[in-house]
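Design review, sub-item: ligand-bound model
Attendees: FS, YL, KQ
YL presented the inputs for the heme C complex:
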Amino acid sequence: MTWPPPSRCAVFTPPGGRAMWLAAALFFGLLRVPAATQAQEKTEAKAEAKTEAKTYVGSEVCQACHEEVFKNFQKNPHRSVETGSRAEWKGNACESCHGPGSKHAEAAEAAEIRNPAKLPAAQSEAVCLACHSNKPPRVQSSHAKNEVACVTCHTMHKSQEELVRRAPAAVNQQCAGCHTSVSAQFRKPYHHRLAENAMSCVDCHNPHGSFLAASQRTVFASEPACVQCHADKRGPFVFEHAPVRLEGCAGCHQPHGSSNPRMLARPQVRTLCLECHANIGVTTAQPTTTLGGIPPAFHDLRSPRYQNCTICHVKIHGSNVSRALLR
Ligand code: HEC
Ligand code: HEC
Ligand code: HEC
Ligand code: HEC
Ligand code: HEC
Ligand code: HEC
Ligand code: HEC
Ligand code: HEC
Ligand code: HEC
Ligand code: HEC
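KQ shared the predicted structure:
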């Protein structure tokens, strides 16, 4: 084709300006290229439609061949996606996860239908997140990062109990399946009574991720779940003990279990304190700024009286009356 096209020239022919010609050429050029691609896309789409198009057929069609699954599904909370007054998948619940099923219903071949359990983790998760996108930390969880998909923990068509485990015994069993060494720590002499199923991993962790380290479950104002049960440790206190907030409870405790009383990280309270307060009892000839630097001054660590720090510093998690956490 010659350019510019004669029919349109008349309209745009300016009284002799070459620049205007150029502008007009560009204008049509821009218009014409996308038009061409669009047409091409349409033909491709049509060709595809002939061989590939899958449409939604409705849950009742699935029922014909998957009676058992269909029957169980009537009790599944996901049924609400097709029955609720504002349901977006009226009559099509099965296909909300499995995708349009016309081809599969015709051919009855597994390859023609999407099974989230057989997809790579990221794609499988995308199926669920299409609706369950309301909890952003989920995407940041180390389970997601390590390709543990939703359907690893949530089984869809067996029972409510397997769809979402709530009973501590069932949760612990599931988590222990992969986290064997953590699970074993709860058998140490001092432990939370998890092995006894009095509580579960999800009392402290959010399996979907959280904004705290190690996916710790958050309560109140993004505080670790510990303070929900140990409310007296929550504060705020007039006199905080800095590490409680800064390092977290696990700075001094081993919440999975410990060989030390009070699940402390060290066998003796003293050694734990002195890891940070080493300047308290040093017996050097130099005067120090802290109390008891020189014996027989105040904190004389050679004296048994001073070795058990928490005999005096009883409010070790924070105090409202004593800066030195004495009461
Ligand atoms: C005409 C009978 C028939 C109909 C209708 C039918 N299916 Fe199936 N479906 C089958 C058969 C047969 C298999 C097992 C294929 C195999 O094991 O190779 C199957 C397997 C499946 C699987 C497992 C695929 C896999 O990779 O493991 C899913 C999911 C599924 N069907 C979903 C559906 C949904 C959703 C519908 C409704 C849209 C539906 N089916 C309608 C016959 C049917
Ligand atoms: C919320 C998502 C979701 C919905 C809704 C759903 N499924 Fe599934 N389906 C799955 C997942 C995930 C699997 C993989 C196995 C599992 O987790 O139980 C699956 C597996 C299957 C299978 C393979 C056999 C099996 O049990 O593993 C069939 C058949 C099936 N679904 C049919 C259906 C039918 C029929 C409906 C509607 C009545 C339906 N599904 C609704 C998510 C869904
Ligand atoms: C089409 C939207 C949709 C999709 C896709 C979807 N869900 Fe759901 N899911 C829902 C709705 C709606 C509920 C019910 C919420 C309620 O009752 O509060 C629900 C509830 C749940 C529950 C909680 C059940 C309970 O008893 O508390 C789990 C677990 C769940 N879905 C997992 C999944 C998984 C895993 C996938 C991906 C395989 C998935 N969902 C895909 C909409 C969806
Ligand atoms: C490591 C196992 C695990 C993975 C992976 C997992 N979940 Fe869960 N999910 C659970 C457990 C356990 C519960 C019950 C939590 C409770 O009772 O506090 C739960 C609860 C739920 C609930 C019920 C509402 C709630 O928060 O209590 C929904 C919905 C849900 N999960 C969806 C998902 C989706 C979507 C994914 C993937 C993005 C996913 N889950 C990945 C273990 C998991
Ligand atoms: C299918 C295996 C599997 C199951 C089941 C599983 N996890 Fe995990 N989990 C992993 C993997 C893989 C990682 C990442 C590597 C690691 O930190 O060990 C992980 C990491 C974690 C982390 C560390 C998070 C971080 O950010 O450092 C916590 C906490 C956790 N899982 C808790 C749980 C809880 C609670 C359950 C039970 C509801 C559970 N896991 C079930 C595989 C699993
Ligand atoms: C009493 C609360 C509590 C319980 C119950 C608990 N955890 Fe933890 N877990 C924590 C805390 C706090 C951390 C962070 C430790 C740190 O920062 O050093 C952690 C860290 C982890 C980590 C990452 C670091 C590591 O030790 O590998 C994993 C994985 C983990 N927990 C899995 C589990 C599993 C699985 C269960 C159940 C068998 C469980 N936790 C029960 C509080 C708990
Ligand atoms: C679901 C409630 C709950 C949560 C969450 C919880 N605990 Fe506990 N904790 C308990 C109970 C109950 C005991 C008493 C244990 C027993 O002997 O049965 C206990 C005991 C302890 C003890 C030992 C007390 C003693 O007198 O020996 C310490 C230390 C402790 N918890 C720290 C933590 C830390 C740190 C966290 C968070 C990482 C945490 N707990 C989360 C319920 C909880
Ligand atoms: C600076 C170290 C340190 C930090 C951080 C710390 N604790 Fe403690 N905790 C201790 C010591 C030391 C004891 C033992 C006190 C004693 O000897 O009587 C103790 C005892 C406990 C006890 C059992 C005795 C009691 O007072 O009830 C619980 C429960 C407890 N801590 C929970 C927590 C929780 C929850 C956190 C986080 C909010 C936390 N601790 C943070 C050092 C710490
Ligand atoms: C992880 C480090 C760490 C551990 C372990 C620790 N502390 Fe502290 N402690 C601090 C920090 C940091 C401060 C704040 C110091 C400041 O404000 O100058 C502090 C403050 C104090 C104070 C108040 C000092 C003042 O006058 O403000 C006392 C008392 C105290 N700690 C006692 C203890 C005892 C007893 C233990 C052992 C049970 C202990 N600490 C364990 C880090 C630690
Ligand atoms: C016999 C009681 C007693 C014992 C045991 C004791 N302290 Fe103290 N501690 C005190 C008193 C009293 C103060 C000063 C309070 C004040 O200044 O108002 C103090 C002050 C402190 C301070 C604050 C120092 C500063 O610079 O302000 C720290 C830190 C401290 N003690 C840590 C320890 C550690 C660590 C141990 C164990 C090795 C310990 N204490 C054992 C009674 C004790």
